[in-house]
Amino acid sequence: MNDGVPEKILLIRLSSIGDIVLTTPLIRRLRALFPHAQIDFVVKEAFAELVRHHPALNTVYTLPARADFASLRAMRAKLQQQNYSAVLDLHKNFRSLYLARGLGQGYKKRLQKYGFRRFLLVKTGWNLYKEIVPVYRRYLDVAAGLGIDDDGQGTELFWPDEAEAALPQFAVEFLNAGDFVALAPGAGFATKRWPVQRFAEVARAVIASGKRCCILGSQAEQELAAEIVRAEPGCSDFTGKLSLL
Prior knowledge:
Layout: E1 8-12, H1 17-21, H2 24-33, E2 38-44, H3 49-52, E3 59-63, H4 69-80, E4 86-89, H5 94-100, E5 107-110, H6 115-124, H7 135-142, H8 161-165, H9 169-176, E6 180-183, H10 196-208, E7 212-215, H11 222-231, E8 236-237
Parallel strand pairs: 1-2, 1-4, 2-3, 4-5, 6-7, 7-8
Helix pairs in contact: 4-5, 10-11
């Protein structure tokens, strides 16, 4: 720290798609308040494209999808060389705790996850939360001690020009054909996933309104997409056919 201003800031959020996108308001506010700081991010390689092109970040460090102890140890050794003045653990699991340990001597804060309540909600559907605080706000709270607040501008994504040039022809034609609604039915846990029949109802309503509908996701979501298409054949299935960006 230099007069309370962090010179090097590290953010740790290893996965997954939605959670990483929800870190972008924090990234933007950090850059706005500390325009000359070095701001780095640690993430799993599978999700790195979501932040790799963010103009507010200096370096994006990546871990393999199944990071073993050797890869974690190597990553921590690399991070220790940077001597960070602020470390923000936005994940708070074993891997992120290990990476953050021993990094920097300044501001260090971890996400409050309310693990037991979250476990009950995800695994059983039993909701003990008294107040629902949006995830992006909880990320901002991790940096509250640095003077970070909410600018109300929401999330954002950045991608290189070549990403658009690399789009498959079927995707280009679909994009150019008019308004559409994209559905993303996948989730890491079944209890976090909306029922397939609800997605089918949305698809049916979208098509009835005169708009087109498509389904996005990885190969892991192809079975879910097939169920939706069986219920509403007018919806296009793009699962497993496009990259993250």
